[in-house]
Design goal:
The chain is an alpha/beta fold. Helix content is 34%, strand content 18%. It contains nine helices and eight strands. An eight-stranded mixed β-sheet has the order 1-2-4-3-5-6-7-8, with helices on both faces. The longest helix is centred in the last third of the chain and has 20 residues.
């Protein structure tokens, strides 16, 4: 009996971020337009495995998903001394740009979800010319926190189980049970304090209110897609944000929550396929 081998290949790349050496794990599949995928807070690149294994998408796109430092199979920077981890807008932006440069990606498409969707907006503000298109899933300029992060990194609390419990309600009720549990499993495996550190960017440092108006979609197309069951970044948040960005294309995705690519890959495919096809056609034109 032989096993089915999925097409993605995993490797490490050594990247310097703000003067610090980092060893970053990434998986890729396909050929064509580079498509860099950013995972959610406290999780890792496994969220994108269904996209990486999609034979139709990988005909025209080189799909790449990497684990941020401190996440998944990417360790903290080599000189990390154990200080509290806090993700900032500057550090997040530097990481993405350094990763793309290390792989010598020419004007890649970047698609991010949740914190990845927020940083996509910042890339559109400050670095639009470096990218062919930007896709924000569950993205808005700001959301008022509905959670308390003070107890997310305590010795008397199982951080992974608490993180998974916190986000479990963000998965749409129509999501297959196996996909729901797989999505939550990555949260249960998150490193101590990493989810909390990511949320520092999401709730404090990454406030983009008053800045998104500067986005020029004529320089770089911007697509925003949000699940109807997401109460962390509600459709109203995304629509409000898009109202300040001339030319942004917005879609509210039915039967999806905060983790569309992993919680219900087949349903997500119905929405992302037209976006990727549009990007492909724009390149051909």
């Amino acid at each position: 009996m032989t096993g089915y081998i999925e097409p993605m290949i995993g490797r490490y790349v050594h990247v310097e971020i703000d003067g610090e050496p980092n060893r970053i794990y990434f998986e890729e599949a396909g050929a064509g337009i580079p498509l860099v995928c950013l995972h959610t807070a406290g999780s890792d690149g496994r969220q994108w495995r269904h996209l990486l294994a999609d034979a139709e998408f990988t005909k025209n796109f080189r799909i790449i998903a990497f684990d941020m430092p401190w996440h998944g199979k990417s360790n903290p920077p080599a000189d990390w001394n154990g200080d509290e981890y806090r993700l900032t807008t500057a550090r997040y932006t530097q990481t993405i740009r350094a990763f793309c440069a290390a792989l010598d990606l020419h004007r890649p498409v970047v698609m991010g979800c949740s914190i990845g969707g927020r940083i996509v907006l910042n890339l559109a503000i400050d670095h639009a010319r470096e990218f062919r298109a930007l896709i924000g899933l569950e993205a808005a300029d700001f959301q008022s926190p509905w959670y308390d992060t003070d107890w997310l990194n305590r010795p008397d609390v199982h951080g992974g189980e608490v993180c998974a419990a916190l986000v479990s309600g963000l998965v749409a009720p129509q999501s297959p049970a196996s996909a729901r549990m797989e999505t939550l499993w990555a949260y249960k495996q998150s490193g101590p304090g990493i989810f909390k550190g990511d949320l520092y960017f999401y709730r404090v440092d990454g406030d983009l209110r008053g800045r998104v108006e500067a986005i020029d979609t004529g320089v770089c197309p911007l697509f925003l897609l949000t699940g109807e069951y997401d109460f962390s970044c509600m459709p109203e948040d995304t629509l409000r944000t898009a109202g300040s960005i001339k030319g942004a294309e917005v879609t509210v995705m039915e039967k999806l929550g905060h983790f569309p690519m992993s919680e219900n890959p087949d349903q997500f495919r119905r929405y992302i396929a037209p976006v990727l096809n549009q990007i492909l056609q724009q390149m051909k034109n």
